[in-house]
TrEMBL record:
Gene3D superfamilies: 1.50.10.10. Invertase that cleaves sucrose into glucose and fructose. Belongs to the glycosyl hydrolase 100 family. GO terms for biological process: sucrose catabolic process. Coiled coil: none annotated. This is Alkaline/neutral invertase. It comes from Quercus rubra (Northern red oak).
Amino acid sequence: MNTIRFLIKPTMKPTSKILSSCRNSQFFNPNSQTKAHPFRVLASPRFIHNTHMAFRFPSSGFYQSKPNGIGGFSNGRGSYIVSRVLSTSVETRVNENSFERIYVQGNNGGMIVKPLVVERIDKDENMVGEEGSRIEVDGGGDVNLRNLEGLIEPKVVEESEVEKEAWRLLREAVVYYCGSPVGTVAANDPGDKQPLNYDQVFIRDFVPSALAFLLKGEGEIVRNFLLHTLQLQSWEKTVDCYSPGQGLMPASFKVRTVPLDENKYEEVLDPDFGESAIGRVAPVDSGLWWIILLRAYGKLTGDYALQERVDVQTGLKMILNLCLTDGFDMFPSLLVTDGSCMIDRRMGIHGHPLEIQALFYSALRCSREMLAVNDGSKNLVRAINNRLSALSFHIREYYWVDMKKINEIYRYKTEEYSMDATNKFNIYPEQIPSWLMDWIPEEGGYMMGNLQPAHMDFRFFTLGNLWSIVSSLGTPRQNTAMLNLIEAKWDDLVGHMPLKICYPAFEFEEWRIITGSDPKNTPWSYHNGGSWPTLLWQVCKQWAGSTRNH
């Protein structure tokens, strides 16, 4: 295998900043932002042939600790640019905190080019001079970086008209608080006279917008969002004389203007923790999305000082303690009520829905890399490691569905009372729906939507399966099978208006009983098999890592 090693002097981390708000300017300065400088190298065609590129980004780049900015690849004019990107993958790597690997595959007139492995190795900080400026090519000698100085230049890609229009619409949706951007509204429809809560900034809804801003190099809005939602976490929350546990993040917030004196007004943030939401559902996923976005912000900007701040570390621990608190449950998966995530209406997902488990697993992995390890956090780190191990086994073993697993379920014995029972959840084979055997492909599989005693939800939930791949919750074989299923059932899951939130939809009597005759969740609408284009960015991330198979 051809290997290029970049010997790089580690960069110093910036010092922490202090949080403040518009009312307490001594605590928060929205302009205090550490800017990262991406490391970019144009490699000579002498050792990299200019071919059409298919990329694959290992998940270790996203979950491992503090790299110095080497990320993905893009091709152009006989060269490749090494740049910083958000990494995704289906592989888990352990004990690789000192370097980051990127595997690149391409096609050369139909021929597969050998994978090129770019490896960043942290060396002694005192390494200087010629040794520190070389690229070592296994089997081919050294290439001096100074010979490439003329090739190191920014690559300008002109935006298409569609991209310009998309950015115009996104910027029109930006919400400002005390003159600084703090997020984007959930929906920006000028013709909607009653927007309900769609004119608020939702934590889960802002994540794809935040990643777009980060990839464009605009980190201020994401930093402000993370800090202001952290401030809201500590607010006292009361619903019908009851206060939920500390650490709960709001589902959304709104900027309101309140009068002070004559001709004087003040902007305040008004959060919603579920006490105003339709159905009064608790936003279990908000804290998980916040942790994932905090990790992405650090990886893409290099501003690791943000996650090292005392207030951020405290908020992170509060979320983790809330999720890891002991309860009555016998399983490592999180037990939640209906409507506690993206599907925030009654849709039969109460219990242990896959979406929550995949986000939980991702948040735990991100937290493990961001927590400052000391005497006060070592027990929490130990609890995270134990939970990750148990959760990954539980999901991979019991949530997985393919033809082999279906045949096993058909042969299940029921009413087994034993420590080594095969049918641990007492699942009756009659639960297998009639559509499943004809729908699932031979080479495909997926994670089922929910698992509880005597109940398996065989619906395919798109977000949960995609994040099982993103976080490496599934095994490499399972991840490949999930992508195979999406490709084989493209017409069912994508069709002309992407992307189905789940498949299939509840219809007829099943819809009436499970949704309570919800008029918004009629078959193939909204949460009941409706199309959600926002899910596409996660599909694109997966296809970027598996183009070689398509």
